[in-house]
Task: inverse folding
């Protein structure tokens, strides 16, 4: 059942990443065996929590978090109904900011602790009853916090590097260097979890030779991007990459311009997936963040979807970027709920990657141009490590 989040606080200064807070709450409910219950979270400022504290607890002062179990305020006539509502957790964002500084925590860490603390009160823990109850509650708090922190460490978003642009530089001179195969090896040594190449029908950058050599030399994972073209399908079946990603392909485009429209070519894409399945090659579909496309992807047997982040990256205003981000976040959550494995890519750079990497439902990012461009100035190894640092730090965002 969903977590409901309501915001009454003044959105100045450090803002709460609302979708991530909902995801955190859902994970905590699962850890507590209460994923079939709903939870309401209200974010307020100090004045509102002071009023609530005064009205319901006779304490005319702000506090950090308050909890109100559903059963405490429920009408007696509702007792026989199958309502699975835990209650309300109310957090003062202003107090959370001050306490983060006081306790030398990140804002994320403080908000996480307050949510855990409030949830445990809803579950019947109460540190004010006795010293024994206080110890019991603190132990459970620490257990939940360890599990949450361990989840982020073990499920860190992976980084796959697209080396197409190395081949583009080579093809501009029609010679043998720079070699994308050598670039891929450096990327792996720097920590990349996979290598991505797009073997286009027109062979404008990656060549057949590159794909065959990469298949022999890559130690991590080879993701072959491709159109649903008979010749390229035959090559994929021959080399057996670890994953193929079907993308739209037009001769006149500079780069892939949008997601694959599988609604208009469902049978064609389904046949490619069936062929790959017989060869034990999983298939990812490069899609816009559209729930209808995701539903069809699941129906025709795709294992992965890669969400097209281009419109988010190309947004010309903060409002537009936030809107596109919300579409991506919602699509990633929906795809994960459907059982699809979710990745993302296109246009991501050193300024816009962190919010996408912070989405727990996205397991891998495919990034190429920004890293290749930076490597011209910093070197490939450092360019990859700089992007990995951004992804590792993304869990500090909330």
Result:
């Amino acid at each position: 059942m969903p977590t409901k989040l309501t915001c009454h606080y003044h959105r100045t200064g450090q803002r709460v990443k609302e979708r991530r807070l909902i995801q955190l709450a859902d994970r905590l409910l699962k850890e507590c065996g209460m994923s079939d219950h709903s939870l309401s979270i209200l974010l307020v400022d100090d004045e509102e929590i002071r009023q609530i504290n005064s009205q319901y607890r006779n304490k005319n002062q702000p506090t950090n978090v308050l909890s109100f179990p559903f059963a405490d305020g429920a009408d007696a006539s509702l007792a026989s109904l199958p309502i699975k509502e835990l209650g309300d957790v109310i957090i003062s964002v202003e107090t959370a900011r001050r306490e983060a500084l006081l306790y030398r925590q990140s804002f994320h860490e403080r908000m996480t602790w307050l949510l855990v603390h409030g949830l445990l009160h809803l579950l019947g823990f109460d540190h004010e009853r006795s010293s024994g109850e206080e110890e019991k509650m603190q132990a459970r708090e620490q257990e939940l916090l360890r599990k949450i922190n361990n989840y982020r460490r073990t499920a860190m978003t992976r980084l796959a590097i697209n080396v197409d642009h190395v081949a583009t530089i080579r093809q501009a001179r029609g010679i043998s260097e720079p070699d994308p195969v050598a670039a891929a090896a450096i990327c792996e040594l720097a920590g990349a979890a996979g290598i991505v190449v797009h073997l286009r029908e027109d062979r404008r950058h990656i060549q057949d030779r590159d794909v065959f050599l990469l298949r022999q030399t890559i130690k991590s994972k080879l993701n072959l991007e491709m159109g649903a073209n008979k010749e390229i399908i035959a090559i994929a079946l021959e080399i057996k990459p670890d994953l193929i990603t079907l993308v739209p392909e037009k001769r006149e485009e500079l780069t892939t311009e949008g997601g694959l429209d599988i609604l208009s070519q469902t049978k064609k894409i389904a046949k490619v997936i069936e062929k790959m399945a017989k060869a034990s090659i999983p298939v990812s579909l490069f899609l816009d963040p559209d729930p209808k496309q995701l539903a069809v992807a699941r129906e025709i047997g795709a294992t992965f979807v890669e969400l097209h982040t281009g419109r988010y990256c190309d947004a010309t205003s903060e409002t537009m970027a936030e809107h596109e981000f919300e579409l991506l976040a919602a699509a990633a959550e929906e795809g994960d709920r459907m059982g699809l494995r979710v990745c993302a890519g296109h246009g991501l750079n050193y300024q816009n990657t962190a919010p996408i990497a912070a989405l727990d439902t996205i397991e891998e990012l495919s990034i190429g141009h920004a890293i290749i461009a930076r490597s011209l100035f910093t070197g490939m190894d450092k360019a990859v490590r700089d992007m990995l640092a951004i992804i590792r730090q993304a869990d500090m965002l909330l």
